[in-house]
Amino acid sequence: MPERVSVVENILSANDRLADEIQHQLNESHVFAINLMASPGAGKTTLIERTIEHLSGLFRIGMINGDIATSLDADRAAAAGAQAVQINTGGECHLDAVMLQQGLRKLDLTQLDLLLVENVGNLVCPASFRLGTHKSVLIASTPEGDDKPYKYPGMYRGVDALVINKIDLLPYISFDMDRFRQGVEILNPGVITFPLSCRTQDGITPWIDWLVFNIQNYREK
After folding, report:
1. pTM here?
2. Would you report the helix, strand and coil content of the chain in percent, each value rounded to 5?
3. How confident is the model at residue 2 (pLDDT cuts 50, 70, 90)?
4. Which domain holds residue 179?
5. Element (H or E) spanning 20, and its range?
6. In the prediction, which pLDDT does 204 show?
7. Are the C-beta atoms of 89 and 69 separated by less than 8 Å?
8. CA-CA distance, 144 to 72, in Å (whole number)?
9. DSSP result, 108-154
10. In this predicted structure, what is the pLDDT of residue 142?
11. C-alpha angle 61-65-69 in degrees, rounded to nearest 5
12. What is the CATH number of the domain that holds 166?
């Protein structure tokens, strides 16, 4: 067992060193990057589409999508107006810094202000692997249930912001928002939260405003 622990620690340590290099590369190019994580079907790609639609006139946007197979999500981002790169992980349940570095080589960072990284749909593995992005955002959706913070504490504990998607479905499903928020607050006190619907775009403005503020604040440093 100690040998296995040592191997895991070495893997994560090597990943962290590369993540630091990636962030340095992004900073050299003045690109603000966000790691978007969620379970399958929570609405990551739709949120990316809506974000591109709202910000395309203000910022130049790139997107790297990590998925086990297909390029469907990257194709959607490209259609919305972003520079888009697909990374097929070959079965891996997360993106790591090596994969992201490979994706960055296919983008012209000098032509970007914002990079959206769509991680593999998973509520376990992505939390362990830093990518070098400046912010990490978790997208939860109401049909998943209000118990997810209690079942996947590692994912909720480390994020900078939380999007609660599909609030338009609240009248039709069993989802206790107070219970959900209580679980989140225990793990990540004070984390900024954006209840919204990508379908109706209700609540999307605070999310967009938060992004604009962070991008501008980053560029002024």
Report:
1. 0.91
2. 50, 20, 35
3. very low
4. 2-219
5. helix 2-28
6. 98
7. no
8. 22
9. -GGG-SEEEEE--S-SSGGGG---S-SEEEEEEEGGG-TTHHHH-HH
10. 98
11. 155
12. 3.40.50.300
